[in-house]
Design brief:
The complex is a heterodimer of chains A (262) and B (179). Chain A is an alpha+beta fold and 262 residues long. Helix content of chain A is 26%, strand content 37%. Chain A folds into two domains: 5-53, no CATH class; 90-259, Sandwich (Immunoglobulin-like), CATH 2.60.40.290. Chain A is built from six helices and ten strands, in the order ααααααββββββββββ. Chain B has two domains: 6-89, Orthogonal Bundle (Rna Polymerase Sigma Factor, Chain: A), CATH 1.10.1740; 109-175, Arc Repressor Mutant, subunit A. Chain B has helices spanning 6-14, 18-40, 43-59, 70-89, 109-123, 128-139, 144-151, 155-175; one strand spanning 93-97. The two termini of chain B are 33 Å apart. β3 (146-154) of chain A pairs parallel with β1 of chain B, so a sheet runs across the interface.
């Protein structure tokens, strides 16, 4: 459906409510005589309506703290350290990077931190944190967390994003997904120096996870946000292959990777 | 959007009134955070950007020209910081996409949520210059003139980028094709 640029511009202006009466009359006449143009207008209006109707997200509860601690706060307080004093002792107590990340995973929300079916969990990782519940802190406690890649999904069965972050020896896969029905996600990593280190999910318990050597399998349905932690000591490059299944059918396959260049 | 008392708050803020700055933060944190999120598709990055925006705004409040509107100024900082964050990522976004099922519109909450995520993922596939204009128009409710002032480009260019951005978004949703 190729629409002449002139009419496309007028349709856009009409949708934005910024069309003159004269142009509106011209456009109306054209639309009445041209079914393709009318279809284009209806599709574009629907898309714009969907964009306008996308919900606003609430900012995290702790967002203001560093911003307010900077201006007029104690001298020398940076946003990375503002509000962290009470966390120092807590942090030392925890001493477990995945837990720290889990704490920073979402402001003000309760997180459940679980590990299930792992045949690797004793390998320099914690033994059992089933049922451990934490509340948020702020991301500043993980100063070296960096996003290194992401994957968007707009499939009919599954939509959302998966991003990979690095924090010291940790690789953190952050899943923010919505699935119409049950889906299975398999994360594969060939490198023997990478192993499963933990799992955290936000505000829900509807996700299950199982870890084996070189593979983490997640099952979910509905709207979910969770993170998988992989340990990758000393690695300056790694690739994680992600496979998404629904009813045994492979929906999509992709990779997230990092090198020290990013 | 352009509150009449922003100027008074800014004046008080420059005199060292922390509560005035807090009031500005409360007023603008949500649109700034949402703009950053729509640009970045990452809640943690959006939070970092929002905090940076308000720290920079406070530090450079003396540079703010009161003949302009405060929201234009802070949105410009927000978008610039978001673009800086994207550049620091130095990475490519990947998209797995397929033509959207013809459901005739959202039928339930899950359908609505899925569609929102599809739209957000597709937004990330569009070049930053187009996404920026779409965010200003559809998420910050700015008109052509306001967008042109925030981005310091002509209204003609605003229209061109907005219209092209919508078409690219439509194409990305329909076919998964990347621009």
């Amino acid at each position: 459906m190729a629409i002449d640029r002139k009419w496309a511009d007028l349709i856009n202006a009409e949708i934005d409510g910024q069309i003159s009466a004269e142009d509106q009359a011209l456009l109306n006449q054209h639309l009445a005589e041209n079914a393709d143009a009318m279809r284009f207008r209806n599709e574009l209006a629907l898309l714009c309506g969907e964009l306008d109707a996308m919900p606003d997200l609430d900012p995290p509860a702790d967002l203001r703290q560093p911003a307010l601690a900077g201006p007029g706060g104690s001298a020398g307080t940076s946003r990375k350290t503002a509000g962290r004093n009470w966390l120092v002792a807590f942090n030392q107590f925890l001493g477990i990077a995945p837990v720290r990340y889990a704490m920073s995973f979402a402001a003000g929300a309760v997180l459940t931190f679980v590990v299930v079916s792992s045949d690797q969990i004793s390998r320099r990782a914690f033994d059992d944190v089933t049922g451990l519940v934490g509340t948020m802190s702020e991301r500043g406690m993980l100063n070296d967390t960096a996003s290194v890649g992401s994957m968007g999904l707009t499939l009919n069965e599954l939509a959302g994003s998966v991003s990979m972050n690095r924090s010291g020896p940790l690789l953190i896969l952050d899943f923010d997904l919505a699935a119409k029905g049950p889906v299975e996600i398999v994360a594969l990593f060939d490198d023997r120096d990478i192993w499963f280190n933990g799992f955290a999910q936000l505000e829900s318990t509807g996700t299950s996870v199982a870890a084996q050597t070189g593979r983490v399998t997640i099952r979910m349905e509905g709207q979910r946000r969770y993170a998988v932690y992989l340990h990758s000591t000393g690695r300056n490059a790694a690739t994680v292959k992600l496979q998404f299944f629904s009813a045994g059918k492979l929906l999509h396959e992709g990779e997230l990777s990092f090198t020290d260049n990013n | 959007m352009n509150r009449p008392d922003d100027t008074g708050l800014i004046r008080n803020c420059m005199k060292g009134d922390r509560k005035a700055f807090e009031a500005l933060l409360v007023r603008y944190e949500k649109p700034v955070y949402n703009a950053a999120y729509r640009m970045l598709n990452n809640r943690e990055d959006a939070r970092d950007v929002t905090q940076t925006v308000f720290l920079k705004a406070y530090e450079h409040l003396g540079d703010f020209d009161p003949k302009f509107r405060f929201f234009s100024w802070i949105y410009r900082i927000a978008l610039n910081e978001s673009v800086n964050c994207l550049n620091k990522r130095d990475r490519t976004e990947e998209l797995a996409s397929e033509p959207a099922a013809e459901t005739g519109g959202p039928e339930d909450a899950m359908e609505y949520e899925m569609r929102n995520r599809q739209l957000q993922s597709a937004l990330m596939m569009i070049k930053t210059e187009y996404r920026t204009v779409l965010v200003l128009k559809h998420f910050l409710d700015c008109n052509y003139l306001e967008i042109s002032q925030i981005l310091d480009i002509s209204e003609k260019k605003v229209k061109s980028r907005l219209y092209s951005g919508r078409q690219l978004l439509k194409d990305a949703l329909a076919t998964g094709r990347l621009n």
